């Protein structure tokens, strides 16, 4: 039996990131290294964040962290398998792995401190990756729809914020009231497939959507 991974205490204003190691085959065991990173110096050590629905907590899959075993949920395991490169390591911040989830007082204090920095962690990431689960029917349509909606919303926001600057209104207070449907190529089909995607887990979907917005 492999030794169990244990967390080292974090200095103030530090986070953990994992370096997901490459593998030539999807069936290869997941391996990563865990290191501490200074949140005030992340430009020198860029990372991506992963947001996903945790899924069933009782079923756990092994992840090799620094040569020791850490158990993660099936959804987390699937996400890492799909995000893993064949050639290069990938630096990620994943809350379930990078924050000590133990029930001790020390772990609870750490979680409280990390949660307080959560917005900054997502904001300083180079990219937020959102994993909604293994591909299902209409998954391609749904992803294209979300991309369509996101691109349209970005164009609308940029246009309205420019208007706000010209009129002396601060951009952060600009309100977008232009119907988003006008920016979507196939609104009915897009809406239906998008709803199907984000409702895979109704208990956690809103947290995934919120985390995705933190990097905007």
Automatic annotation (TrEMBL):
Give residue ranges for domain Heterokaryon incompatibility.
47-142
- Signal sequence bounds: none
Can you name this protein? Heterokaryon incompatibility domain-containing protein
Record lineage: Eukaryota, Fungi, Dikarya, Ascomycota, Pezizomycotina
**One Pfam family per UniProt:** HET
Query: Domain of life, per the record?
Result: Eukaryota
Q: Which species is this record about?
A: Parathielavia appendiculata
